[in-house]
Amino acid sequence: MNHAIHYSIIASDLAAHLFEITLTVAEPDPAGQVLCLPAWIPGSYMIREFARNIVQIRADCNGKKVALKKSDKHSWHAAPVTGALVVRYQIYAWDLSVRAAHLDQTHGFFNGSSVFLAARGHEAAAHVVDIVKPAEPACKAWRVATALPELKAKRYGFGTYIAASYDELIDHPVEYGAFALATFTAHGVPHDIVITGQVPNLDMARLQADLKKVCEAQIALFEPRSKRAPMERYLFMTLAVGDGYGGLEHRASTALICARADLPVKGRSEQSDGYRTFLGLCSHEYFHTWNVKRIKPAAFAPYALAAETHTPLLWLFEGFTSYYDDLMLVRSGVIDEPAYFKLLGKTINNVMRGSGRSKQSVAESSFDAWTKYYRQDENAPNAIVSYYTKGSLVALTLDLTIRAETAGKKSLDDVMRALWQRFGRDFYKANGGRGVTEQEVDALFDEVSGLNLRRLLDRAVRGTTDLPLKEVLAPFGVAFAPASVDTAAGLGVRTTRDGNDCKLANVYEKGVAHKAGLSAGDVLIALDGLRIQAANLNDLLHRYRAGDTVTLHAFRRDELMTFTARLALDDAPQVTLTTLEKPPALRKARNAWLGK
């Protein structure tokens, strides 16, 4: 069963958001070919049931109809045939995200995991895809952006593409439309940037220059001598919208969504918070080229896409990537030191805000990603911890501990390089790499650092006590300071706008609102008789101080309720990070850490 599997895909109805796919299996299973669509996409740990978007499906062989029987929620069993099996089906594509498929008159986008049925037993065969240009006038100027190798197509043109296996096929998303395109090289490897969506006065040259620095810094981190990237080319695919944020990593590309306001503007040299956030997103997804796309947890080698695949190691693969994304921005010179410590301080504050950090370890958070992290409810801050944000602080703690205790001779960089050399570098080669286990990760930290880090790993990864951040930052001349001397009290809530109303999204455990009896979902109406709206709650609270007692009116569903609250200062005060220049040893250690 090594004959190539053939697909054709065309945007058949832009207004109805329908892709038409034809799958041809030259030598189907004599017992009846099984066809299935993944239930989830690597990098996004939630069952998404992509098969629910199949609108209709039919099969034939030699022009005669072939019976298809659905065997489970995402699988079909074709009756035995003699000759090639041809399966035709429609996919409804209206998910404006990086995880599935989207199609309208402005562009088309799809991940293979959401549109290409797998022919069971043929996954190791070559997979050929004809991407057919739509005939509609709106598509006249459309081009194709994908990292899939071309078979009978010009780069960025419609035509035929090829993947060595089904796993490779679904690891190369496709974007097509009338997009902006630019190219830069990073240590000799071409990197393309595609921007879909209207972005007036886009400063593409600045984006190219900044991403080049970040990419070269990351390539050099993993391969400091050869500066050899693990791919022949790389593609940043970005959809610019009015308000959006997200990214998903792939082996030679990333799919991104951002607010168009976050992209750089010609003639404006200042670096906005939004642009800094977008660069951090690009850095994060690019770092995954090594950390999770090639260095993988054992549970993901290979992926089992029919059901949840649990691993306790997402703190390493997502958390460490979250640590390095901003760190590589400052090391590459794209942001300055004050900007980096502002970002780091924000991460620390976010982690300290939720009491869930004292109830769930990052190892548990990793394992429960499918049921808790990706399916958060209003009580999430009080029940769970993010393996992204706390995981990044675990990386910080380990990095600075290793640096301090080895007098700068070793660091987390050395651990990442060891993971790359042993588990990632040869992963996609014949008889190549394998996934890493939790036990191997623990042992590697001790081996590479020359230290005994087991107790710290148990505390940081498998425990729920707060990390010793003040202690590990001190030898690098970084100190905690209150973010504000403001004595105004708060309610201990996170609010969201519901029209003009102020709705409670989260009520933090043991905060003022919790003690007063308020709940997530309540709509605040008045404070001491003054109307509360989405935009004025902080202004009203600013006139009060800790210890003051106030009356709050709120709607819970359609019932008006009254609450008495005794205001207090925030239980999780915000902090900023300040840097010290003396003695010089502190500055020297910090320079080595930040790559100055």
- Provide the gyration radius in Å: 26 Å
The named CATH superfamily of the largest domain: Neutral Protease Domain 2
Q: Could you tell me how far the N terminus lies from the C terminus, measured between alpha carbons in angstroms?
A: 55 Å
Class derived from helix and strand content: alpha+beta
Remind me, CATH topology of the largest domain? Neutral Protease, domain 2
Helix % is 25-40%
Number of helical regions: 16
Please list the strands of the largest sheet in the order they lie side by side.
Answer: 5-4-8-2-1-12-15-14
CATH architecture of the largest domain: Orthogonal Bundle
Show unreliable segments.
none
Report on this structure.
By secondary structure, this protein is of the alpha+beta class. It folds into 4 domains: 5-176, Immunoglobulin-like (Sandwich), CATH 2.60.40.3650; 180-273, 2-Layer Sandwich (Zincin-like), CATH 3.30.2010; 298-476, Orthogonal Bundle (Neutral Protease, domain 2), CATH 1.10.390; 493-566, PDZ domain (Pdz3 Domain). The protein has 16 helices and 29 strands. The strands form 6 sheets. Strands 5-4-8-2-1-12-15-14 form an 8-stranded mixed sheet. Strands 23, 24, 25, 26, 27 and 28 form a 6-stranded antiparallel sheet that branches. Helix 3 packs parallel to helix 4. The N and C termini lie far apart (55 Å).
